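Suppose you are handed only two things: the residues of a chain and a line of SMILES describing zinc ion. What would the bound structure be? This form records exactly that question and the answer produced for it, so the two can be stored side by side and reused later without any lookup.

QUESTION INPUTS
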Amino acid sequence: MKKYVPYRHRSHCLECGCVIDYAKSNQKFCSDSCRDHWHYRENKKAGRFFSRVMSILETNRSILIQLTEEGRDKVEMTYLESRGFRPGFCTGFTKRWGYCEYRCFDIKYCEKNDLVYNISSLLSIDEL
Ligand SMILES: [Zn+2]
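ANSWER OUTPUT
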């Protein structure tokens, strides 16, 4: 017969959900194996998230470079979005008087009232 363990002394494993009797206050896993599986899965999720964000940033940068190569330094945000640009993904941001200046790696641009303008390449790392 299994001995009764008061609820306050029980915890549940984050990986398999089994009851951990007499758990220490910070014990989250029933075994080393469960701890390893849980951390492996969480790290994999974080890696996918990072890769996805980097992919979006690279796409945004590529679109901005194409515009500068076409000689365009002013477009509407809706046009950028139609080319696959994702607003909100940038590597730097400065709020200026009346407008916002963004950076996507080595490309900078300003935005005001759905208009994206002054799209240009940073010539020097000193401008960061
Ligand atoms: Zn477990």
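WHAT STANDS OUT: The chain has a mean pLDDT of 88. DSSP finds two helices and seven strands in the chain.
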